[in-house]
Amino acid sequence: MENNVKRWPVIVVGIAVMFFSGIIYAWSILKAPLMEEMGWGASQLALNFTITMCTFCIGGMISGILIKRINLRLIFLMAAVCSLCGFYISSTLHEDGLSLLYLSYGGLAGLGIGIAYNAIISVVNEWFSDMKGTASGALMMSFGASALVLGNVANSMIGSIGWRVTYMLLGVMTCAALVAASLILKHKDPNVSFAKADEGTELHEKNVKAFVIEKTLSDSDDAASDSVRETSKDDTIVEKKDYTTMEMIKRPSFLRFFLFLVLASAVGNSTISMARDVAIFSGAEAGVATMLAGILSLCNGAGRLLAGALFDKIGQRKTMLVDGIITITAPVLMLLAISMHSVPLVAIGLAVTGISYAFQPPVTSSVVASFYGAKNFPANFSVANTTLIPASFVATIGGVLFTSTGSYIAPFVLLLVFSVVSFVLNLSVKNA
Description:
Layout: H1 2-21, H2 27-30, H3 32-38, H4 42-66, H5 72-91, H6 98-127, H7 132-161, H8 163-184, H9 197-211, E1 229-231, E2 237-239, H10 245-250, H11 252-281, H12 286-314, H13 316-340, H14 343-358, H15 360-372, H16 377-384, H17 388-405, H18 409-429
Antiparallel strand pairs: 1-2
């Protein structure tokens, strides 16, 4: 009982840190004053979001490497300094400071939040090994809700005290949360156990097995490998060999899965970047557009819970197919909304986009675990997560298409094509 009491501050602090870290996804709100005051175009600001997502991924990889090598407190302090400097430098920008925006917000802030994101998830999962699904869901909900709640607060602050002071305050608040995390959060003592830990671990292992993708034996070099496969009760095949990262990268199954994730993630990632602008383009007032952009992120958080529930109910293969259908539906709805200048359709389209984007992390986690084993999972998972880097460049392409055509039709036609191709790749993954 005493151990259970000790661990609850961990999840509370984790939720708080994720809430402030999630402001990174409110870029469609935070970029508005820069566009107005500096005159920077959509494609230029979209590139900043691309850079932010790249450094976010890099930060996560750095955190994954350092978390077992240096003191946890230093990791959070490193994230705090990067985030504070990123927002502060961004608040001092002038018209000729576009490259400095890329370095500060895109580079430092993105890197700091990426470091914090991975560290928080890792530490909370240590303390809640018997409740990983619930704990991760709470963290992701907080991260997703930030763009809606904190994004709207930031929008109001921009209107009352100006964007420069707002940027500074966001940096201070994020930094304060990370400093608090450095003082409170610690690795769990290996000797500490919880009442239901064994039961939870057994359930987790059972769920991982249930999440695996159906695999058929083929004449490919994958089938010719010396790995051992085990068939579970739902007729799926579990890969029992533990692959190194280099071995994983060389497998055709990984290439197909990687491309699937890049294209599917590009749909959600790009829409997040231009959510507020699309809403305004379709006829929404500025305040309403800000709220709609937040709804996308909120649904992204809530969608994590939906994905988990579907995994438990229908298994991984069917859940991935559902995700593929939702991912195609999202740009279709957005195209209809833009063509009809319908704000209600924009709201629905953004919500569906958020839900589809939410499926990617659990899909990535379960596929990497089932295809390539548990021994090298941290390293393999961090490599699989780099799909966000090429996916984020699609947001920049979308900005260029809007600038050249004056409409969001072309960007979402591109996203629709991506979603269809990703669905085809989705179907082929089971034949890996």
